[in-house]
Design a protein that fits this description.
The chain has 3 helices and 10 strands; from the N terminus they run βββββββαβββαα. The chain is an alpha+beta fold.
Length: about 180
């Protein structure tokens, strides 16, 4: 097992209202030194977010179609959002579910967690499955209404080949969901 490198220095290269880009100067256990750039939130803790796989019934989950400015196109994925200060991840999952698809859940269970790009981004995403849904629409922060799309579990192959289902965390969450559903 390798020894964690020593952080010799960190400095802010750029800052927005949400994130900082830091230069991190490291010394590894073999004496090698390197500078890395990383994106961090405004605190030293990793940015926390959630994703929810809402099950409208045993055979159908809900997706949202929203604009992804990074790619300049619409993408399909599961509801997701940032954990607000003082909010637990499971509370965020309920809030995002209500804001993005208009439901709340009587059965919200933890599935897994992801670090999308740990070499560059200090962020953790907690993934939940929501079952036993009931209507509960709350106003969200989206600039336009999100299109909510039901998708049958039996049609996962067509979803995986859909040109708008390309968000890697949604693809990974779907894999974890399938795996958890088929465990003995």
């Amino acid at each position: 097992m390798s020894t964690k490198p020593t952080i010799l220095d960190t400095s802010t290269l750029a800052q927005t209202r949400l994130f900082r880009v830091e230069d991190v100067h490291l010394r590894f256990s073999n004496g090698q030194e390197r500078h890395f750039e990383r994106i961090v939130g405004m605190s030293r803790e990793p940015v926390q977010s959630v994703m929810v796989l809402p099950m409208i019934d045993d055979q159908t989950f809900l997706l949202v179609r929203e604009y992804g400015v990074g790619l300049e196109q619409y993408v399909l994925g599961f509801p997701k959002g940032a954990v607000d200060l003082g909010e637990a991840a499971i509370e965020t999952a309920q809030r995002e579910l209500s804001e993005e698809v208009g439901y709340a859940s009587n059965d919200l269970s933890f599935l897994t967690r992801f670090a999308a790009s740990p070499a560059y981004v200090s962020a953790i995403m907690h993934v939940y499955v929501a079952r036993d849904l009931y209507a509960d629409k709350k106003e969200g922060d989206e600039p336009e209404p999100l299109e909510v799309i039901p998708w049958k579990i039996t049609e996962i192959d067509s979803l995986l080949s859909h040109p708008e289902f390309i968000e890697s965390r949604s693809v990974a969450a779907l894999y974890y969901f399938q795996r958890s559903e088929h465990e003995p």
